[in-house]
């Protein structure tokens, strides 16, 4: 339990670590750098799925458990996507009403963090050495640029930089709660572990393909983003070998 608490806390607070940069940036970062960061984290998450979650789900539950769990993960994210209007954080224009769109952004990001927290908790419950730390790291690295983008969006809405930092940090806090839920469920109901690992991989793959890759290719930086994606994969593979 101590490990999952530490891992989930560090993973969730990575959102705040990314948002912290808003206090030191004189202005907004360029589209190119945002695209590079998004593609890099997509590569990291892809490697965590393909070389961590999916093989371990197969090993402990077989192909059927993997398929069911992955489709549950993808289905959950699909429902969230349909019921929470998606707003592109990178391309939103300034000057819109904070009470309407900014609150929608905060709610959307917070709810999208739920399956990420579950992923961390389930990974620690699997009792496979290093899996929990690996997934917590992958999610944390994805949360950092997300926190920065949320903070940048709020600052564009004329929100004070410090308040933007606090709000962005709080959007990641729900991951601590959901990771504990995921850990508790799979710890006490052991047969859920392969389904939980597959659920986590499905949710992460949805985020990669539906959100991170399209957004990293939206401003004419496809080549740079592609290289960043590959570097992200290699970085995570290197960590797996250590």
UniProtKB/TrEMBL annotation:
The keyword Transmembrane helix applies. It is a multi-pass membrane protein. Signal peptide: none annotated. Its main location: membrane. InterPro entries: ZIP (IPR003689). It is found in: Membrane. The chain crosses the membrane at residues 6-24, 36-54, 60-80, 101-122, 134-155, 162-185, 191-212, 224-241. Keywords: Membrane, Transmembrane, Transmembrane helix. The keyword Glycoprotein does not apply. PANTHER family: OS05G0316100 PROTEIN, ZINC/IRON TRANSPORTER. This is ZIP family zinc transporter. The lineage of its organism: Bacteria, Bacillati, Bacillota, Bacilli, Bacillales.
């Amino acid at each position: 339990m101590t490990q999952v608490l530490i891992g989930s806390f560090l993973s969730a607070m990575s959102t705040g670590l990314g948002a912290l940069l808003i206090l030191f940036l004189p202005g907004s970062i360029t589209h190119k750098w945002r695209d590079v960061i998004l593609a890099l984290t997509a590569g990291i998450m892809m490697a965590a799925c393909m070389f961590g979650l999916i093989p371990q789900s197969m090993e402990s539950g077989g192909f059927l458990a993997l398929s069911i769990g992955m489709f549950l993960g993808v289905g959950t994210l699909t429902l969230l996507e349909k019921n929470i209007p998606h707003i592109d954080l990178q391309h939103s224009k300034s000057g819109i009403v904070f009470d309407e769109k900014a609150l929608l952004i905060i709610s959307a990001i917070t709810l999208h963090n739920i399956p990420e927290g579950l992923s961390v908790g389930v990974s620690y419950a699997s009792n496979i050495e290093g899996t929990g730390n690996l997934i917590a790291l992958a999610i944390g690295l994805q949360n950092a640029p997300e926190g920065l983008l949320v903070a940048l969006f709020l600052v564009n809405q004329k929100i004070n930089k410090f308040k933007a930092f606090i709000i962005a940090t709080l959007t990641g806090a729900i991951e601590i709660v959901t990771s504990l839920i995921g850990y508790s469920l799979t710890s006490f109901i052991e047969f859920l572990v392969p389904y939980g690992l597959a659920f986590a991989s499905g949710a992460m793959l949805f985020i990669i393909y539906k959100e991170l890759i399209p957004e990293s290719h939206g401003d004419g930086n496809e080549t740079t983003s592609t290289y960043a994606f590959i570097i992200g994969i290699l970085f995570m593979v290197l960590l797996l070998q250590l």
